[in-house]
Amino acid sequence: MAITCLLVSQSRAEGTTTTIAAFGDSLFAGYGLNATEAFPVKLEQQLLAAGYNVKIINDGVSGDTTAGGISRLDYVLAQKPDIIILELGANDLMRAFPPATTQANLDGMMQKIQAAGIKLILAGIAAPMNFGAKFAGDFNAIYPTLAAKYNAPLYPGILEGVLGHAELLQADGVHPTAQGVDIMVSGMLPVVEKLLVK
Fold first, then answer.
1. CB atoms within 10 A of CB 9
2. 172: annotated active-site residue
3. Closest CA to 89 of 105, 110, 111
4. Cβ distance 25 to 93 under 8 Å?
5. In Å, how far are 14, 28, 42, 45 from 186, measured between CA atoms?
6. Which of 25, 59, 92, 175 is catalytic?
7. Does the annotation mark 82 as catalytic?
């Protein structure tokens, strides 16, 4: 068993490097953190430690919306990643943009990403009920609907296990601390690994 694991790790290390673009907002950019504490950096570290030959590009921009993502998508695609983790919509939510607009923007990006032959992971975020039941319901349906449409892996709550835990959040109550990022990475890790072993 140990020999098998060693051979698998060795084959991964000797294989072609898989490039992953972490395409999102401040949750990927590492707002309020040291550069080494940002989500893409920590995810890369965990994958490398597991024996995967990967390079993760931090394409997170603080404050970005899905509309901003559309304007940046060609730049991200030009980096020729093998996988894109698409994490946008939180700022649309905070600004109470119509969910239909957010969905249309994400839909357009996902269509273009898959047309480029790039594997895609969709990372969502949940709307709290204080936005109103109708708005929250419409927003929260966006990510599973699009994941099903494009048959893309879905990580439904990028801040799952972090929101509601003051010790894992910065003073603004929204952005994760370095420890919060560790929780985010732990949740996302198996989703990314499933694409890497295919």
1. 13
2. yes
3. 105
4. no
5. 25, 14, 10, 12
6. 175
7. no
Active-site residue (options: 26, 59, 92, 182): 26
Question: What is the model's pTM?
Answer: 0.90
Residue 110 near residue 152 (C-beta atoms within 8 A): yes
Cβ contacts of 63 within 8 Å, gap of 6 or more = 25, 26, 91
Decide if 175 is catalytic: yes
Tokens matching residue 80? 């020729």
3-state SS assignment for residue 34:
coil
* Three-point CA angle 55, 28, 95, nearest 5°: 150
Instruction: From first to last of the 198 residues of the chain, give the pLDDT tens digit.
Output: 443 344 344 444 456 999 999 999 999 999 999 999 999 999 999 999 999 999 999 999 999 999 999 999 999 999 999 999 999 999 999 999 999 999 999 999 999 999 999 999 999 999 988 899 999 999 999 999 999 999 999 999 999 999 999 999 999 999 999 999 999 999 999 999 999 974
Domain boundaries, the chain: 15-196
CATH number belonging to domain 15-196: 3.40.50.1110
